[in-house]
């Protein structure tokens, strides 16, 4: 999304967004063909424009479940958007062409719990685990 489009949407009444933060810059380049900083710029601009922002991170085992990735995301969220920014940590399940890319099993629950603890340790007040059969 361009800055111009985001500004226009906010001007026309956009008041809430859920934005995916998938991982670090290397992950974005390799798996998404995108620039992670553009996503972060949009997140910060939306917040500055008064849009309620929530973040979702889909954890995929072997791609972005390393503690350093969640540590980096959650620290940056707390520092740049504030401790009250909701973070939804979401469990991934392999579908369609997933096996072609080495994604064969659902994200381990232990990885989700570890990510939750890291995000809370970094000061985020509203951290949620999604795509589970029970609440934590």
Structure in a nutshell:
It contains five helices and four strands, in the order αβααβαβαβ. With 136 residues, it is α/β, with parallel strands linked by helices. α4 links the parallel β2 and β3.
Low-confidence stretches: none
CATH superfamily: pyruvate-formate lyase- activating enzyme
By CATH, the topology is pyruvate-formate lyase- activating enzyme
Strand order across the biggest sheet? Answer: 1-2-3-4
In CATH terms, what is the architecture? Alpha-Beta Horseshoe
Tally of contiguous helical segments: 5
Number of domains: 1
The main pleated sheet reads as: 4 strands, parallel
Structural category is: alpha/beta
Series of secondary-structure elements, N-terminal to C-terminal: HEHHEHEHE
Q: Please count the beta strands (DSSP E, at least 2 residues each).
A: 4
Chain-averaged pLDDT: 89
Text of the CATH class: Alpha Beta
For the termini, the CA-CA separation is 33 Å
Helical content stands at: 40-55%
Write the layout of secondary structure elements.
Layout: H1 3-11, E1 16-20, H2 25-32, H3 36-48, E2 52-59, H4 67-80, E3 87-91, H5 109-121, E4 127-130
Parallel strand pairs: 1-2, 2-3, 3-4
């Amino acid at each position: 999304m361009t800055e111009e489009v985001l500004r226009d949407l906010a001007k026309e009444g956009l008041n809430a967004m859920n934005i995916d933060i998938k991982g670090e810059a290397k992950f974005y380049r390799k798996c998404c063909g995108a620039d992670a900083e553009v996503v972060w710029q949009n997140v910060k601009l939306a917040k500055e424009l008064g849009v309620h922002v929530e973040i979702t991170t889909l954890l995929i085992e072997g791609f972005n479940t390393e503690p350093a990735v969640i540590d980096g995301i959650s620290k940056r969220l707390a520092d740049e958007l504030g401790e009250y920014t909701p973070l939804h940590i979401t469990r991934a399940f392999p579908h369609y062409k997933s096996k072609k890319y080495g994604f064969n099993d659902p994200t381990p629950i232990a990885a989700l719990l570890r990510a939750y603890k890291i995000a809370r340790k970094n000061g985020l007040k509203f951290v949620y685990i999604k795509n589970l059969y029970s609440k934590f």
